[in-house]
Design a protein that fits this description.
The complex is a heterodimer of chains A (142) and B (177). Chain A has 142 residues and is mainly alpha-helical. In chain A, 62% of the residues lie in helices and 0% in strands. The longest helix of chain A has 24 residues. Chain B is an all-alpha fold and 177 residues long. The chains are: A mainly alpha (142), B mainly alpha (177). At the A-B interface, helix 1 and helix 2 of A face helix 2, helix 3, helix 5, helix 6 and helix 8 of B.
Chain lengths: 142, 177
Amino acid sequence: MSGDGDPRLDDLERRLMSRQIAPSAALRDRVLAGVHVAIARRTVRPIRDDATPLEWLAIAAAVAVVIATVGAMIESVPAIARVPEAAAGCTLTARARRAGVPIEHVASSPDASAGFPAAAAIAREPFTLRPRDRRQLLEETF
Amino acid sequence: MTTLAHELAAGDAGAFAALYDRLAVRLLNTARTMTASAALAEDLVHDVFAELVVHRHRLAAVTDLDAYVFTMLRHAVSRVRRRAAIDRRARAAVLASRTAEGRLADRPVDVPDDGLEAAIAALPADQREVVALKIDGGLTFQEIAAVTGVSANTAASRYRYALEKLRTRLQPPGDDP
């Protein structure tokens, strides 16, 4: 903009306006190229408060898929890797946890009270899992 | 809502080109005065348009497009200023340690040669901002108030104080007002 001819401006204001520069053609090309790229790009639209019911349904479905996927990934990790006691060397407790044996069974066994204080310590935790593995471990261990 | 805003919200590249052609000079010079850097001002204009495109759906609710774009520019300048302040502190720390170690001589301060540019750069940020929006952006005090979040009277006062400071600073030495 130029206000050189505006009589309401004083000398200082005219001097300030005279220092203005014109944008280069390169800047215009750069900006408009960025505009084209941004328009063409597929972007994830933010969740808006004016989303339609169908959009909310799609969002809910996407969230459910993510939760199910993550859950499946966690489930696929060997149970022993998720048991801190296994790392500490408490094999009996780790095996019980891995197989889903109620830990009270381990804690109430003579082994637990005699040589596995960690098992006794965690016996207070509610811990019940898959019946099939529980039966297998009971057969192996006790 | 204007037709242009409709077209912008719909992602019409031609509408963005029209908006650029309408505002580029004002935006560029406003950013240049605010930041005292022509190169940075170009980056800011680019960033503002990129942000406009990404959030174009918001334009459907905009009533004053010019004020909206200048507000975006102001926010972009604020972000740059915060980053620059962090950079300056880091550089100053490095410079101080190296100077203390005798690895680097003291450097002159990098300010523009032109007295007017130096005087503008020396203004407080809030006054420089109003000068930029008024002189370079061509906004009214009402519009400046909308962009900066202060009252129109405050904007006018800041502008007046800024011009007084510029006049004082640009006065030749020994020349009484």
